[in-house]
Predict the 3D structure of the following.
Amino acid sequence: MNAVIDLLNSHRSIRKFTDQPITQEIINTLVQAGQSAATSSFIQACTVVQVNDQSKREQLVECSGGQAYVGEAPVFLVLCADMQRNKLACEMNDAAINSGFTEQFITATVDVGLFAQNLTVAAESLGLGAVYIGGIRNQIARVSELLDLPELVYPVFGLCLGYPDQNPEVKPRLPVDVVLKQDSYNDSSDQATITEYDKLVSDYYRTRTGGNKEMTWSEQMSGMLVKEARPHMLPFLKDKGFLLK
């Protein structure tokens, strides 16, 4: 329909990068693009930690479950939900922040997601590739300590950036009919639509792996969502001053 929509629809996760460096000027520009995203009540609750130290990068590889590209990508960023800066703003005005509310956790985390998507789209517009690294939450306390994150700051995910050294296919998304509802939530036809979508996903995996993997979307979800999902997250977040009320 237009160049922006074409760019958005062509998103792929890139895990192999060339050795071409990314200038700090470009990184600064991408972060500025991230800052231009919508932010709830102007809280601007995203902080980005650019990890340059290779020894820290190697530790982050371990924290993320051995994802080698965390150490190999030209740039690795950790995007954090940050209410510490807002606490400082209160102190600058002789006020005490009333923190710990679930709503504050939601708005700060959403801010990070919006920021990151802006940053990623800007990167792709410059010919860069990216992949999000939620795996840093496997050992989130260690990541927090490694990056010296204070109270009211937590790492939401990492982001690898670089010039692509691969050209994977675009992974098919759920049909719009499943995602877009009119006036109320009605999923009466979703199972039939998802069954058809499962065939597309299975074909995608078969093509991408040369026949070594044949899995539908619903099979993937049913295999994943019956397991525990990082149960250490809640006590960690409470210790950081989130989700207390």
Summary: The longest helix spans residues 102-125.
